[in-house]
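Hello support,

Our group uses your service weekly, and this is the first time we've seen a run hang past the timeout. The protein is Transposase. I'm not sure whether the cause is the sequence or the server load. Input pasted verbatim:
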Amino acid sequence: MGNRRYDSDFKREAVRMVMEDGLGVREVERSLGITHGVLKGWVQKHRGNQDAAFVGRVAPESPEAELKRLRKENERLQRERDILKKAVAIFSTDPHRYSGS
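Update from on-call engineer: The timeout came from a worker crash unrelated to the input. Re-ran successfully.
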């Protein structure tokens, strides 16, 4: 296989599927036909430089889009917090129960 070029919109959508939809990197690579390992690099590049991660991004995120993204992230963080609270409650009821002692 030769080197395949992906446009910036395609890259952003693939990264969004991983970061916002919570899909696995390998799953997205398979479903979109991306060479193994390429998407991981895109995700890392996006995390390091979100606004200018991919060449061709001209306009910044609109306030409405940013609000939607932040609300979605807030919901995810609240779910994670709730899970951690439950885990703490479970492990603090009987600390020796899960330690094998």
